[in-house]
TrEMBL record:
GO terms for biological process: lipopolysaccharide transport; transmembrane transport. The lineage of its organism: Bacteria, Pseudomonadati, Pseudomonadota, Betaproteobacteria, Burkholderiales. The chain crosses the membrane at residues 12-30, 61-82, 103-125, 298-317, 324-341, 353-375. It comes from Pararobbsia silviterrae. One of its GO terms (cellular component) is ATP-binding cassette (ABC) transporter complex. This is LPS export ABC transporter permease LptG. The keyword Transmembrane helix applies. It is found in: Cell membrane. It is a multi-pass membrane protein. The keyword Transmembrane helix applies. It holds the Pfam family LptF_LptG. The gene is lptG.
Amino acid sequence: MKVYERYFARQIYLTFIFVLFAFSGLFFFFDLISELDSVGKGTYGFGYAVLRVALLTPSRFYEIIPVAALISAIYVFATMAAQSEYTIFRVSGLSTRRALGSLMKIGIPLLFVTYLIGEVVGPYADQLSERVRLEALGSSVSSSFRSGVWVKDTLTADGGHPVTRFVNVGELLPDTTITKVRIYEFDSTLHLTDVRTAERGRFQAPDHWALEDVSETKIDPVVSDTTDPKEALNPVYRSVLTHAPHYLLRSQLTPQILSVLLVSPDRMSIVNLYKYIQHLQENHQDSQRYDVALWNKLLYPFAILVMLVLSLPFAYLHTRAGVVGIKVFGGIMLGMSFQLVNTLFSHVGTLNTWPAVTTAAAPSLLYLAVGLIGLKWVDRH
């Protein structure tokens, strides 16, 4: 980096850290207030509430980073403009193009930090936060559903025939143990062939579930007299009921796929989102919501660069020092409007089945255009 770039970077990074922790502290307070309703239930005390909210902090960082980058850059440039520092840089030969390129260099480390938080720290902390809460409350993930959770599972049997299962999980415990399991298995012609129930199950890598206390009902058609038209229209089936203390079931379902019940799509990692989308597509299920979430995760960190572009025009507005606060307030409103538009596009795109990449990229491209237009206007004037 050149001397002026190091100066810009130092000022922006220091202000960024202050703004980031200030906003996260505000969200920490609000999240803690929302958790007070659960305090006192089971063993969920105030200490557990503080721990849960603290574990949500990395995800708050991930959400706040673009806005914090915008506010910090606006504050730095507005201060420089008020003290005529940026004017000196321009007289010394700093063009708008070079200043924009320098801002992109400053934004790249923030971009990588955002990916690190969004892919590694945030999803793990969110799952841990949910497990802490559920264990303290003595609850399960699917306790709010009357019939539990239904998942479709398609695989190829040992004989090479496709098998379709509809799996009903009554409860998914925080340690990813499943209970009250019901499995309805269909053959390639979609005839029901097997019904299994199990009290509990644990995953055994790479692709098996160890079920306990299993009851299995096999359903086989009885060969009927084809000369009798009634028998042709009313086939007869025979069922055989067996019990087993243990049963090893091969399945494509994994705890990672079921863990989508613990974390909302926008807080999942890109890897887990991609695996779950593949699972949905293999089972011919709608994945629009998760496609949008995946592209949002891929493109969201680049919003930092867009926010830095939006901040640069504030360096060209020559005002008194007392107006710096107004510029910062304008930056806050601009950042909040970006978050609002981004969320709005995600919901509207999902409802209208717009292409996922268009839904995710449209807000950033819109604000990038606004920033470039504003930069061109202030440069001319």
